[in-house]
Each structure stands twice: as structure tokens, then as C-alpha cells.
Amino acid sequence: MADLKITLIKSAAHRLPKQRAIVKSLGLNRVSSSVVKPDNAATRGAIFLIAHLIAVEEVK
């Protein structure tokens, strides 16, 4: 199974509290910070809710 590299490209400041919580739970702290997460339904659901703030790449 592949992993997803998630990079925060826009700030989560002044966003809805739910969106800020998702960004924090993914482990993204600052703009341009990246994390690698497994490609599963939970991660995909979180990505869908904050898609306008992040960039996603598939890594193997």
C-alpha cells in the first residue's frame, strides 16, 4: 500500500475550528511542513475536508 505525502500550503489561521483541528491532528504545524501518512479511508477523509489548504503526493 502506498503512502501519501501531505504538505500544508496555506495557513490554517482564521479557518473553521474543525479545519484547524484536522490540520493539527495530521501533524502539520507550519506552512510548508510535510508529513507522510498511510493511504487509508481515515486519511482520505481528513484530506477531503482540508483539500484547499494542502498539497498531496503519492510516495512509494
Helix/strand order: EHEHE
CATH superfamily: Ribosomal protein L30/L7
Give me the count of strands.
3
Shape: globular
> What's the gyration radius in Å?
11 Å
Distance between the termini: 8 Å
CATH class: Alpha Beta
Q: State the share of residues found in helices, binned by percent.
A: 25-40%
Beta-strand proportion: 25-35%
- What ranges have pLDDT less than 50 throughout 5 or more consecutive residues? none
CATH architecture: 2-Layer Sandwich
In CATH terms, what is the fold-level topology? Ribosomal Protein L30, Chain: A
How many domain regions?
1
State mean pLDDT (0 to 100 scale): 97
Number of helices: 2
Quickly give the structural class: alpha+beta
Strand numbers in spatial order across the main sheet: 2-1-3
Largest sheet: 3 strands, antiparallel
GO molecular function: structural constituent of ribosome
InterPro entries: Ribo_uL30_ferredoxin-like_sf, Ribosomal_uL30_bac-type, Ribosomal_uL30_ferredoxin-like
Keywords: Ribonucleoprotein, Ribosomal protein
Family: Belongs to the universal ribosomal protein uL30 family.
